[in-house]
Amino acid sequence: MTCGEPAGIGPELAWPARQALGAEVPFVWLGDPAHLPPDTPVQRVDTPAQAADVAPNLLPVLPHPFAAPATPGVPHPDNAAGVIEVISRAVDLALRGQTGGIVTAPIHKKALKDGAGFAFPGHTEFLAHLAGDVPVAMMLASPLLRVVPATIHIALSEVPAALTPEVLEQAIRITHAGLCDLFAIARPRIAVAGLNPHAGEGGAMGWEDHRVMAPVIARLRAEGMDLRGPLPADTMFHARARAQYDAAVCAYHDQALIPIKTLDFDGGVNVTLGLPFVRTSPDHGTAFDIAGKGMALPDSTVAAARMAWQMARQRLALRGT
Fold first, then answer.
1. Which domain holds residue 72?
2. What is the CATH number of the domain that holds 55?
3. What is the CA 246 to chain-centroid distance, rounded?
4. Residues whose CB is less than 8 angstroms from the CB of residue 118 and which lie 6 or more positions away in sequence, other chains included
5. How many domains is the chain built from?
6. What gap in Å lies between CA 290 and CA 288, rounded to an integer?
7. pLDDT one-digit tens code per residue, 71-123
8. CA 73 to CA 104: how far, in whole Å?
9. 310 class by beta-carbon count within 10 Å (0-12 exposed, 13-18 middle, 19+ buried)
10. What is the pLDDT of residues 6-35, one digit of tens each?
11. pLDDT at residue number 320
């Protein structure tokens, strides 16, 4: 579990997550112990493997010194490099098989850009770069719903041009592979949301659904994938509809994230599909406004750690190790 932005709520959620998970999900916290709340019971370790032997009333910590102290709610520019180093170190540990996966606490992109010239839009893109510039997809997952936006952090006005056949196909293929590899679904059922209202209604409300999306879906269905769509997004997310698919691939960010955050705001987990290692993250930000006030809830961090553990075990089982 990486520390994330030291001025955010990430460090203060590590110990509550450890208390909630106990021996069920063994993890090691990677960061500067000085950034944890003062009363956190810590046991330092030298390797991730040693965390399995740490008593449940202690938080296993793999120390990574930072340049400056942490002030809740106020990011320090000198700590930006440390945040980036921790992510890189976690990826290195995962790639060398020393951890089963990574749970990343939230970062603050502006703080990293201002303090260290961070050139990536976010965690997901940086992780993909560290893994060898592999193609990835962002999934938000909970027991109630799994969604993957085909386009992510761009303006809504840019979505129609960005949603090319290649982009949609990649999102569907990565989603299909992730459902098999990480969620143990042998034959995934994937619903694809149309871009326009009523999925374009035959061109009356936009042509992208019929001309761009439908041919991709038909071609992949001919390969054997269980796909439905493009479907009207406004009828895809009620309970009966959700029972008909294992994941929904959506055209743009809010089309995917609004339904899952409405259904399960505290239990949603960010999963990066396509990486050579497991990566999850709580579905919230740094929350500078409540950092250090004892108000932050660990629910999403706990859910992220539990899901990472389950997926790591699933991946090992599939590989026979």
1. 1-136+272-321
2. 3.40.718.10
3. 17
4. 80, 84, 109, 112, 126
5. 2
6. 6
7. 999 999 999 999 999 999 999 999 999 999 999 999 999 999 999 999 988 88
8. 19
9. middle
10. 999 999 999 999 999 988 899 999 999 999
11. 64
